[in-house]
Design goal:
Order of helices and strands: EEEHEHHHEHHHHEE
Largest sheet: 5 strands, mixed
Shape: globular
Strand order of the largest sheet: 3-2-1-4-5
Radius of gyration: 18 Å
Distance between the termini: 25 Å
Number of helices: 8
Length: 252
């Protein structure tokens, strides 16, 4: 917690999609803190009071941002759907990730909203963009639609689309070689989180098992991005604006 009058504390939140809802982690970001020498982040981030929860929706989290109770919310799910072409943000994210580029699924076009099944979604996508969509992207549609209906353009200074692989790449200062589902990949990501939050805090976040470990780990990565957003040190990819006025950006 803050130790002097010139320090301020802000609560920030990272979210990852999980079976049946969302893995939600939050922490207090202390401004003007000094980064521990062991932390690999390129920007000093001091985070404490780590909390983990499961949410069936994100309504309350977004409302917390609007009230000012949360300073930033970073969600690993597309925000901003284009009508007929791929998003620049996805292309730029894949280019940055190098060996981990396959973790960025092409975002469905807006025409796929309302599809009754995968074949219908593919037909709608082909008619609008000339391409079908992947089964992985189709499986994300319910959560994409939830965010599309919930988030307003004016929310996006503080509510951002994140990607955990970009967050971990920024923490590491280099590309991660191993996928997260391998033992080596999980170990590497946990080491980065332990250096950022402290091993006891990370272990405590995983202990309740409110969601699969990998979803909690990704949400913790997104929490680091939320801290950057609150500090104004985030990096934003993409420049597209969708038909609802929302920015199609990936932030890390």
């Amino acid at each position: 917690m803050p130790t002097s009058a010139d320090e301020t504390a802000q609560r920030v939140c990272g979210v990852d999609g999980a079976p049946g809802g969302w893995a939600v982690v939050s922490a207090v970001l202390i401004a003007n803190g000094t980064r521990a020498k062991t932390a690999p982040s390129d920007v000093a981030l001091v985070l404490s009071d780590l909390r983990v929860a499961f949410g069936s929706s994100l309504n309350s989290a977004v409302e917390s941002v609007r009230r000012g109770d949360l300073s930033a919310l970073a969600i690993d799910m597309p925000i901003g759907l284009l009508d007929e072409r791929p998003r620049a943000a996805d292309r730029e994210a894949r280019a940055l990730l190098g060996p981990r580029r396959s973790s960025v699924f092409p975002t469905p076009v807006r025409a796929t909203i309302g599809a009754v099944d995968y074949l219908d979604a593919c037909e709608r996508s082909r008619a609008a963009s000339g391409k079908a969509l992947s089964k992985q992207a189709f499986n994300l549609l319910p959560k994409i639609i939830e965010l599309d209906e919930l988030i307003r353009p004016q929310d996006q200074d503080h509510v951002v689309e994140a990607h955990p692989e970009l967050a971990f790449m920024r923490l590491a200062g280099s590309h991660l070689t191993h996928p997260k589902r391998t033992a080596e990949g999980k170990s590497c990501r946990l080491a980065l989180l332990n250096a950022t939050f402290g091993a006891p805090a990370v272990a405590a976040a995983l202990r309740p098992r409110v969601a699969p470990d990998l979803d909690i780990i990704d949400a913790l990565g997104n929490l680091v991005t939320a801290a950057h957003v609150a500090r104004g040190t985030e990096r934003r990819l993409g420049h597209d604006i969708d038909s609802t006025g929302k920015r199609a950006q990936v932030v890390y």
